[in-house]
Amino acid sequence: MYVWILFVSLLLCLLALDLGVFHRRSRIVTAREGFSWSLVWMTAAALFAVVIFYAYDQQWSGLGTVPDPVERTAALPDGVINDGGNAVIKYLTGYVVELSLSVDNMFVIAMLFRVFAVPAAFQHRVLFWGILGALVMRGVMIVLGTHLIARFDWMLPVFGVFLLATGVKMLFLDTAQADPGQGRLVRLIRRWFPVTDEYHGDRFIVRDGAGALLLTPLAVALVLVEATDLLFAVDSIPAILAVTADPFLVFASNAFAILGLRSLYFALAEALDAFHYLKYSLALVLMLIGVKMLAHGWLRELLGDHFHIYILGGVVLILAAGIGASILRPQAVPTVARTELQ
Questions:
Q1: DSSP class per residue in 103-126
Q2: Rounded to 5 degrees, what angle do the CA atoms 209, 200, 271 make?
Q3: Phi, psi of 80 (to 5 degrees)
Q4: What is the pLDDT of residues 167-191, one digit of tens each?
Q5: DSSP secondary structure, 243-276, as one string
Q6: Which pTM was predicted?
């Protein structure tokens, strides 16, 4: 338990430093600064892999003592115990999968910011609080998902089929026709709460002349970012549960990927539209993870006990191919019209 307390405390300290020290005042985050911070977060994630190794190798606070139900075999019906090496591979695989699937989330967030004309100086504040909420939501989903997999053997193939279907759907999904403004949700918010027509700095709530509380368009953008992340988590959580059902590994990899999402957004915001083939890569990643879930036993026999290394390599190669194809065959960038909060 103390490992969980220390890890959550570390996350809270990092978030407090981010908002309270480095981004205390609302300002525009440049692509260069976003890239620098992305390297910082990726380095932190890589260094935490060392902690993962020793935590599971030395079985700190019971880590590495409970069988991983994703690794069930005929010889080990309860699953395989994660040693330091296996834990690191699963943590890194989960991190890469979550970070790559978050790129699709960034496309939608970028469209939301354009649609609602969110000032560049306030975008970091929206993403900060959005990601804080995402950590809480994903924590709840991880607890439920790991519990279901540990209790019901048939949940793994169900998740596998779901990921395959989602990957196939993504291959044929026209994101340009999606409703980034999520008009129905905006109308629902306006029905329940009064919303100002203009931004009031970086404030989410203001008072009118009579003292009544009003939401600002920045608050509406925050709600939409949270809703978007919840929708994407429905895909990403089953994907990482295909790698491991160890709650600590799942949450740690998710947390570091989400913490680095803001910086990665600012590093790639201007270039997101250029990666038009990345959607297909993400679809193939989901399908690969789905196949891994359905054919886990066969893959272990074919590739050996450390077949997760091959899965990690496959994910990286698929993503690299999508990025490379986008660079070699660029296409025109579509325009997105601004939507009023009506």
A1: HHHHHHHHHHHHHTT--GGGHHHH
A2: 160
A3: -100, 140
A4: 888 877 654 444 544 567 888 888 8
A5: T---HHHHHHHHHHHHHTHHHHHHHHTTTGGG-T
A6: 0.84
